[in-house]
């Protein structure tokens, strides 16, 4: 079975980062196809891979699976022994809920603090609405770490799908220098130390494309 993951710019594409980090960290082999955003963040050439017009797309022997949640569910189904979701039933229910919450929520933070791995804009994007989103994220991370995190450094102990889902949030907290309580700060450090996250970040830093729509705080 041949897996191809179609992604966007590593510096900017938060949705692409999630399944890429998941597959890489879980050592599931895939071929990477990278497309680039135009200045309005449309993905140039995506029509060849998916009619949905967005990245990421996972192609399985040429057949597209699109949308991050569907891709991660499919990866878990293809590789049951990798336990990409937490094994404990109760933990798994919470894990699914927090991934769904990330997928459909936190619009204020996402809009005010676009992912931009190579840049630093301390203090930017902190509006009352984005602060509320951040407080909710810190609360759910703290709850997961306290209730399910015992066996490791991640939300459910060992690395699992929710950590891939929140990895772009960890990137944002660094770019915008969001001050965090110790449990959340330690979690961010654990995510940044993941081999797959380091690899993605290094590649993002090497990118030179400037996408104006994702750069509300760039000078000039
Ligand atoms: N719900 C989708 C969102 C994907 C998405 O919005 N991707 C952005 C890049 S991070 C994109 O492809 N934008 C291009 C466009 O909207 O034309 C998912 O979870 O995969």
Question: Count the strands?
Answer: 4
Helical element count? 8
Distance between the termini: 48 Å
- Share of residues in helices: 40-55%
| Apparent shape | globular
Strand composition percent? 5-15%
User: How much is the radius of gyration in Å?
Assistant: 17 Å
Give helix and strand order, one letter per element, not per position: EHEEEHHHHHHH
**What's the mean pLDDT score?**
97
Uncertain segments of ≥5 residues (pLDDT<50)? none
Structural class comes to: alpha+beta
Characterize the biggest β-sheet.
Answer: 4 strands, mixed
**Largest sheet, order of strands side by side?**
2-1-3-4
**Small molecules held by this entry:** glutathione
Describe the 3D structure.
The chain has 220 residues and is an alpha+beta fold. Helices cover 48% and strands 8% of the residues. It has 8 helices and 4 strands. Strands 2-1-3-4 form a 4-stranded mixed beta sheet, with helices on one face. Glutathione is lined by residues 8, 13-16, 41-43, 53-56, 67-68, 103.
List keywords for this structure.
220 residues, alpha+beta, 4-stranded mixed β-sheet, 4 strands, 8% strand, globular
Brief rundown of the structure:
The chain has helices at 14-25, 68-78, 89-104, 107-112, 128-148, 161-175, 182-193, 195-206; strands spanning 3-7, 31-34, 57-60, 63-66. The chain contains 8 helices and 4 strands; from the N terminus they run E-H-E-E-E-H-H-H-H-H-H-H.
Topology:
Blueprint: E1 3-7, H1 14-25, E2 31-34, E3 57-60, E4 63-66, H2 68-78, H3 89-104, H4 107-112, H5 128-148, H6 161-175, H7 182-193, H8 195-206
Bound molecules: glutathione.
Glutathione (GSH) is lined by residues 8, 13-16, 41-43, 53-56, 67-68, 103.
């Amino acid at each position: 079975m041949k897996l191809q993951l179609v992604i966007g710019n590593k510096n900017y594409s938060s949705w692409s980062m999630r399944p890429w980090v998941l597959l890489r960290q879980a050592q599931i082999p895939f071929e990477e196809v990278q497309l680039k955003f135009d200045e309005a963040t449309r993905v140039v050439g995506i029509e060849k891979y998916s009619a949905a017009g967005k990245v990421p797309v996972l192609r399985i022997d040429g057949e597209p699976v699109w949308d991050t949640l569907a891709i991660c569910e499919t990866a878990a189904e293809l590789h049951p022994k990798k336990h990409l979701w937490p094994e404990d039933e109760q933990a798994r229910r919470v894990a699914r809920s927090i991934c769904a919450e990330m997928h459909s929520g936190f619009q204020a933070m996402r809009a005010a603090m676009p992912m931009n791995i190579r840049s630093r804009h301390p203090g930017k994007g902190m509006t009352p609405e984005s602060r509320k989103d951040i407080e909710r994220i810190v609360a759910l991370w703290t709850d997961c770490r306290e209730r399910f995190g015992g066996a490791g450094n991640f939300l459910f102990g060992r690395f699992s799908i929710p950590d891939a889902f929140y990895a772009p949030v960890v990137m944002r907290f660094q770019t915008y220098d969001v001050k965090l309580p110790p449990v959340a700060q330690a979690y961010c450090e654990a995510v940044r130390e993941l081999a797959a996250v380091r690899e993605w970040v290094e590649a993002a830093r090497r990118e030179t494309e400037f996408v104006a729509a994702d750069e509300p705080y760039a000078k000039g």
